[in-house]
Amino acid sequence: MNMRSERHVTIVGAGIVGVCSALWLQRDGWAVTLVDSLPPGRGASFGNAGNISPGAVVPYSIPGSLRQVPGWLFDPTGPLSIRPGYLPRLLPWLFGWVRASRKEEALRISAAMHALHSESFEAYAQLTRGTDAEGLVERIGQLYVSEKPGAAAGSALAQEMRAKAGVAVQVLDANDIQQMEPALAHRFQSGILLPDNGRCRNPHRLVTALAEVSVRNGAQIVQGEVMAIQTEGSRVTRLILDGGSQLTLDALLIAAGAGSGRLLKQFGRSVPIEAERGYHVTLADPGVVLHRPVTHRDWGFAAQPMDMGLRLAGTVEFAGIGAAPNWRRADLLMEQAKRMFPGVQTDQVSRWCGDRPSLPDGLPVLDRMSGVANVFLAFGNSHFGLTAGPVMGRAAAALLNGRATRLPMQHFRLDRFGRVPGLFA
Ligand SMILES: Cc1cc2nc3c(=O)[nH]c(=O)nc-3n(C[C@H](O)[C@H](O)[C@H](O)COP(=O)(O)OP(=O)(O)OC[C@H]3O[C@@H](n4cnc5c(N)ncnc54)[C@H](O)[C@@H]3O)c2cc1C
Q1: Which residues of 164-180 are buried (b: 16+ CB within 10 A; e: fewer)?
Q2: Is position 303 within any domain?
């Protein structure tokens, strides 16, 4: 599929969102240049937990979640950590997070998540069919377990949100859990199975395989960090990369994950994006068999059987975008893996840390930049970017083509944070 085109777009960010956007745009006849400081798929898209979750309709910030935060913060093994000294800078983001936890807000956000996530498998199928990425994404269900009776399903509101969105849920007891996953420790009291969710066997391979397809379709991949964006009148005209090289722009799509905020500053725009940093450990030879992804609800991480071994991935750390990793957080994941899977072998381990691009309400920005005619925005999918990636890309292509999408785009506007006077505007 090598296409000739008069329309050309430069996409900053070759993660799952940027690469999916490239493929959809090529289908619409656009010529594409992908720019990234790293090779494709080396940002947050590299090491995530691999969950593909059309049923992800429960925001992290809902009534009651704030009550859990102090307990987590004082527990060094807990799922949430704020690096000492970073709290003052994080406060505006946290205020936004708390605002988003009001019931009516949480319900609005839940509906937007449903719209963004529900067609993930169908969108992936369209992009991967007949490519090396086919088969990497599988609808095999997801299991959520808790050590507390009745806790796996979450609050009444969480259950209401899933019911409203039509998410299929099977409630499980300790025996059901053992039968489904005998490798799990006998400590889990409650569980739920989301049979219509699934996983990706190798998230990095997914992005690289899709990037290879885009190159076969004619995309150019340029490795370099965008340092500046030049504007003439109401249009962007040029990217300046590290090392001083320049790229001429016809249209620009910013899909740079957690790095998107720095690029928006070039336009004098501020967006409250934070790195909700997570970690993984991948055990190449775990010695235990898992049949599906299993999320430990109480500790906030997922165990995922992948082509590379058993991956434990998750937890949240706020330390600032680009801060050095605290590998103790990854080591904690390994200690928890030993409690979760008594027979697990941990002698062949790789560790990773990545920045989830997160806005306070958990929703992304999917918009065009007001006042600049040829700039478009697709970033900020927080915990769900692997799930949302192909739908974000399809919507980004619609934006560039001036086409309507089925998504409720008002929830993804850049200016939504400006509504809180003095906070984010
Ligand atoms: C531990 C962990 C577990 C997760 N688990 C899941 C999961 O199970 N399911 C799920 O759906 N999601 C999950 N996520 C979230 C998901 O990984 C992210 O939301 C998603 O990868 C974001 O994709 P992206 O393309 O927006 O960003 P990225 O993959 O980060 O890509 C952005 C790219 O932009 C580039 N860039 C940034 N600034 C510049 C610049 N100035 N110049 C050039 N290049 C630039 C970066 O190098 C990067 O490659 C998880 C995340 C983490 C950290």
Answers
A1: ebebebeebebebbbeb
A2: yes
C-alpha 376/C-alpha 10 separation (Å) is 10
The whole model's pTM is what?
0.96
Nearest CA among 2, 3, 27 for reference residue 400: 27
Q: How far is the CA of 349 from the centre of ligand 1 (A)?
A: 22
Q: Which residue stretches of 217-288 are H helix?
A: 260-265
Residue listed under structure tokens 């785009």: 409
pLDDT at 420 over 90: no
Give the model's pLDDT for residue 335. Answer: 93
Q: Please check whether residue 354 lies inside any domain of the structure.
A: yes
User: Could you tell me which residue, 92 or 424, shows the higher pLDDT?
Assistant: 92
Best residue for ligand 1 mutational test, from 19, 35, 48, 136 (most atoms within 8 Å of Cβ): 48
How far apart (Å, rounded) are the C-alpha atoms in residues 43 and 309?
Answer: 20
pLDDT at 5: 52
- Decide the pairing of beta strands 235-241 and 246-248: antiparallel
Over 70: is that where the pLDDT of 1 sits? no
Report phi then psi at 286, rounded to 5.
Answer: -75, -20
Residue nearest to atom 51 of ligand 1 (CA): 48
- For the chain, how many structural domains are there in total? 1
Spacing of C-alpha 39 from chain mean position: 18
Atom number of ligand 1 nearest to Cα 277: 53
Q: 335 lies in a domain?
A: yes
What rounded mean pLDDT belongs to the chain?
94
Which range marks the domain in which residue 97 is found?
63-101+139-198+273-358
How far is the centre of ligand 1, averaged over its atoms, from the C-alpha of 69 (Å)?
24
CATH of the domain at 83: 3.30.9.10
Residue with CA closest to ligand 1 atom 20 = 385
Give the span between the Cα atoms of 229 and 262, in whole angstroms: 11
- Whether residue 293 lies inside any domain: the answer is yes
